[in-house]
Amino acid sequence: MFAPYEDRLERLAEQRNEIVEIQRHAIEDSQTPAPQEMEIILDAIDAEIDGRNSPTFVHCSDGHGRTGTVIGCYLARHGIAVGKDAIARIGELRAPHPELAEHKSPANIVQERLVTRWKPDQ
User: Fold this and answer.
1) Catalytic residue numbers, as ranges
2) Most CB atoms within 10 A, among 4, 39, 57, 106?
3) Does some domain include residue 21?
4) Dihedral of the alpha carbons of 40, 42, 48, 53, in degrees to the nearest 10
């Protein structure tokens, strides 16, 4: 679980003369957002990457279920990996990190279903 980090992040950004923005999109633990809410989340990620060409970090409390769901839908939206390939790609990205690789991501069948049904450009 992540410790509160907003103050530390803002101090670090100020020291480096960087701009940071924290956005929160509530997804209940072990759940998925409605498709319309996922589109809003993905649009926000795209806006940051495209608009500022800046690093974008996605996480939830444990960094497995909801994080994997959002990243899986992002991969599908951009045609990087679609359907079950998106689930496999998340596993590949997590594999070099033992602390991540030991947890399934997305964490459950409901989250996997949203990812595997997400379409390119959705």
Assistant:
1) 60
2) 106
3) no
4) -160
**Residue-level pLDDT, tens digit, the chain, 122 residues:** 567 788 888 999 899 998 888 888 999 989 999 999 999 999 999 998 887 777 788 888 777 899 999 999 999 999 999 999 999 999 999 999 888 878 899 999 999 999 999 999 99
Domain membership of residue 13 (yes or no) is no
Cβ contacts of residue 97 below 8 Å, gap of 6+?
none
- Residue 105 included in any domain: yes
Following CA atoms 45, 49, 54, 58 in sequence, which dihedral angle do they give, to the nearest 10 degrees? 30
Q: What is the DSSP string of the chain?
A: -PPP-HHHHHHHHHHTT-----------TT----HHHHHHHHHHHHHHHHHH--------SSSSHHHHHHHHHHHHHTTSS-THHHHHHHHHHHTT-HHHHTS-SS-SHHHHHHHHH--TT-
Residue at 93 is within a domain? yes
Expressed as residue numbers, the domain containing 48 is 33-117
